[in-house]
UniProtKB/TrEMBL annotation:
<feature type="domain" description="Ig-like">
    <location>
        <begin position="333"/>
        <end position="389"/>
    </location>
</feature>
<dbReference type="GO" id="GO:0042110">
    <property type="term" value="P:T cell activation"/>
</dbReference>
<dbReference type="InterPro" id="IPR013783">
    <property type="entry name" value="Ig-like_fold"/>
</dbReference>
<feature type="domain" description="Ig-like">
    <location>
        <begin position="221"/>
        <end position="313"/>
    </location>
</feature>
<feature type="domain" description="Ig-like">
    <location>
        <begin position="141"/>
        <end position="214"/>
    </location>
</feature>
<feature type="signal peptide">
    <location>
        <begin position="1"/>
        <end position="20"/>
    </location>
</feature>
<keyword id="KW-0812">Transmembrane</keyword>
<dbReference type="GO" id="GO:0035723">
    <property type="term" value="P:interleukin-15-mediated signaling pathway"/>
</dbReference>
<dbReference type="GO" id="GO:1990782">
    <property type="term" value="F:protein tyrosine kinase binding"/>
</dbReference>
<dbReference type="InterPro" id="IPR036179">
    <property type="entry name" value="Ig-like_dom_sf"/>
</dbReference>
<keyword id="KW-0732">Signal</keyword>
<protein>
    <recommendedName>
        <fullName>Ig-like domain-containing protein</fullName>
    </recommendedName>
</protein>
<dbReference type="GO" id="GO:0009897">
    <property type="term" value="C:external side of plasma membrane"/>
</dbReference>
<dbReference type="InterPro" id="IPR007110">
    <property type="entry name" value="Ig-like_dom"/>
</dbReference>
<dbReference type="GO" id="GO:0045121">
    <property type="term" value="C:membrane raft"/>
</dbReference>
<dbReference type="InterPro" id="IPR003598">
    <property type="entry name" value="Ig_sub2"/>
</dbReference>
<dbReference type="InterPro" id="IPR003599">
    <property type="entry name" value="Ig_sub"/>
</dbReference>
Length: 479
C-alpha cells in the first residue's frame, strides 16, 4: 500500500509539478475567457485553489472547508464575474472563467493548487483585444478610423485586418510589430461598411475581435456612375435613397453636360421628369421619375443633398434603348436593329420571339444572337413580337420589345394599295375601249355621209319620197 501511494505521488510530481512556462490566452472584450489550469492528478479534490492576478491580489479562492472567496474587483452588485466549475475538479481541471471581459482584465494570472503538502502553480497571460471605430455611423466622405487595441500589447505580434471575412489591404493601415495598436484610416465610403475583424498572431496563438461600421449617406445607388437601362417610351425611376432616418436638406437633381463630370445643364431636365416627394416615399428617399423616356433623354444625372453641413452627390447614367426597323419591299422582310445610347457595358445581344394564343397566354419561341435580326413581313411571325435582350458581365442589363403586328398593318396596306392600283388600271382600260368604240362608230357615220353627198339628185328624190309617205300616213290617221 505504501509503495502504491509513493508511485502515485511520483506520478503527480512529474505531471503537475511547478511550471515556469507562461500560457498565452487571447479574448475579445465583452466576451468570456477561460484561463487554463489542468493536471492529470489521481488525488481527490485539492484542499485549496487560489487564482490571483499580479498587483491586484486574489481573484477567486476556495478553502479546504469548501468556502469560496471573490476579490472585491470581481464582484459587482452581488454578481460574480469569475467562477471555477466544481464539476471539473475530479478531472483535474481548475480553469477559471471570466465573464464580460474588460480591457483592464488583461494581465498575468496564477493558479495555485494545494494537494496535501504538494503545491503546483500555472501562470497565464490574458490579452484582451478590442476593436473600436471613431464614428459608429460616419457620414459619407468624412474621416473614419478603425483601431485594434490589445491589453497588454504583444510586442512582435502580427496583425491582419478583415472586412466582411475578406482580407483588407490598404496603405492607410498604420501598424508594425512594435506599435501598441493597429489603425485603419480611410474616407468613409460604402465599401467600408460591414464587419471589421482584427486578427492578432503571437507565439503560435491567435486572437481576434470585431466591430461593425455603418457608413451613412447614399444606399441607392450604392456606387457612383451607376447605369440605369430603360426602353424608349417606358417609365423609369432614377434612385436617390439616403440612409434610413436621414433627412437631407436642399435636395435636388441636375442633368450634366455631355463629356463633363461636374458641370450641369441649367434647366435642361426632361419635360416628363418628376422629383416631387410622393406620399408613399420616406423623407430619405429622393428618387425621381420619368413617365415616358425619349431617346434624347439619355445622359448623366446628378442627385444631391446636404447632411450635417456636408453636400453629398451621386451621379448616375440613363442608358436608353430603341429598335430601328428597315423594311425591304423587294425581299418582303424587315431588319430590326437594337440600338443603345451607351454600349460600354454590353457584351451580348439576344432576340427572343414571344407569341400569344387566343386566350392571350404568352409563350417564348425561338431566339437569335446578335445585334440585328431579319424577319419576313409576310410570315406568321407578324402575329408575335420580338424582344431584344442585352447582357453585361453580371447578366441581363435590360430589354426592349418590337411589336410585329405594326408590321402586319404595313404589309396589309401595301396589299390594299396594290389592289386599288389594279382596279384603277382595269377601270381606265374599260373606259378607253368604250371611247375607241365610240370613235369607230363616229368614223363609220362620217364615211356613210360622204358617200351620200356624191349623188345629190338621188338624195333629193329619196327625201321627197320620204316626205310623201309621211303626208299619206297623216291623212289616213285623220280619216
Amino acid at each position: 500500500m505504501f509503495i502504491a501511494n509513493f508511485l502515485k505521488y511520483l506520478l503527480y510530481i512529474f505531471s503537475t509539478g511547478a511550471r515556469c512556462e507562461v500560457i498565452e490566452v487571447f479574448a475579445e472584450a465583452g466576451s468570456q475567457a477561460v484561463l487554463p489550469c489542468k493536471s492529470n492528478t489521481l488525488f481527490p479534490t485539492p484542499s485549496t485553489i487560489v487564482w490571483s492576478k499580479d498587483n491586484e491580489g486574489t481573484v477567486w479562492r476556495k478553502q479546504k472547508s469548501g468556502l469560496q472567496y471573490w476579490g472585491s474587483n470581481w464582484v459587482k452588485k452581488g454578481i460574480q464575474r469569475v467562477q471555477c466549475p466544481h464539476y471539473q475538479f475530479e478531472r483535474g481541471d481548475y480553469s477559471l472563467q471570466i465573464n464580460d471581459l474588460k480591457e483592464n482584465d488583461g494581465g498575468v494570472y496564477s493558479c495555485r493548487v494545494t494537494l496535501g503538502n504538494i503545491v503546483s502553480e500555472n501562470v497565464v497571460r490574458l490579452r484582451i483585444i478590442k476593436v473600436s471605430v471613431s464614428q459608429s455611423f460616419p457620414i459619407w466622405g468624412s474621416d473614419v478610423s478603425v483601431t485594434c487595441d490589445v491589453t497588454p500589447w504583444p510586442y512582435g505580434a502580427s496583425v491582419q485586418w478583415m472586412l466582411n471575412n475578406n482580407l483588407f489591404v490598404s496603405r492607410s493601415i498604420i501598424s508594425n510589430r512594435n506599435t501598441p495598436k493597429s489603425t485603419v484610416r480611410e474616407k468613409a465610403t460604402a465599401r467600408l461598411t460591414g464587419n471589421w475583424t482584427c486578427v492578432v498572431g503571437f507565439k503560435g496563438k491567435e486572437g481576434r475581435a470585431s466591430a461593425v461600421l455603418s457608413v451613412q449617406g447614399f444606399i441607392q445607388p450604392s456606387t457612383d456612375n451607376t447605369k440605369v437601362y430603360v426602353a424608349v417610351g417606358s417609365a423609369v425611376t432614377l434612385p436617390c435613397v439616403f440612409s434610413p432616418g436621414l433627412t437631407p436638406s436642399s435636395p435636388g437633381w441636375e442633368k450634366l453636360k455631355p463629356g463633363s463630370l461636374f458641370k450641369p445643364i441649367p434647366g435642361h431636365l426632361p419635360l416628363s421628369f418628376s422629383q416631387s416627394l410622393s406620399s408613399s416615399q420616406h423623407s430619405w428617399d429622393r428618387s425621381a421619375s420619368l413617365k415616358e423616356v425619349g431617346f434624347e433623354d439619355e445622359g448623366r444625372y446628378r442627385c444631391s443633398g446636404t447632411l450635417q453641413g456636408q453636400r453629398l452627390t451621386r451621379n448616375m447614367q440613363l442608358v436608353v434603348a430603341k429598335i430601328n426597323s428597315n423594311i425591304s419591299k423587294k425581299k418582303g422582310s424587315v431588319t430590326l436593329t437594337c440600338q443603345l445610347s451607351d454600349t460600354t457595358e454590353v457584351t451580348d445581344y439576344e432576340w427572343v420571339q414571344v407569341t400569344y394564343d387566343v386566350n392571350g397566354t404568352q409563350s417564348v419561341g425561338s431566339s437569335h444572337k446578335g445585334k440585328t435580326l431579319s424577319i419576313s413581313s409576310m410570315s406568321e411571325e407578324k402575329r408575335s413580337e420580338w424582344t431584344c435582350r442585352f447582357y453585361g458581365k453580371g447578366g441581363i442589363l435590360g430589354n426592349i420589345t418590337y411589336h410585329v403586328p405594326l408590321m402586319s398593318g404595313l404589309s396589309g396596306q401595301k396589299q390594299t394599295n396594290s389592289s386599288h392600283n389594279t382596279a384603277a388600271v382595269i377601270g381606265l382600260s374599260f373606259l378607253l375601249v368604250i371611247l375607241l368604240l365610240i370613235l369607230a362608230q363616229m368614223y363609220k357615220n362620217h364615211q356613210r355621209r360622204k358617200k351620200a353627198f356624191q349623188y345629190p339628185a338621188m338624195e333629193t328624190i329619196v327625201h321627197n319620197i320620204s316626205n310623201e309617205r309621211e303626208e299619206r300616213a297623216k291623212r289616213q290617221v285623220k280619216k
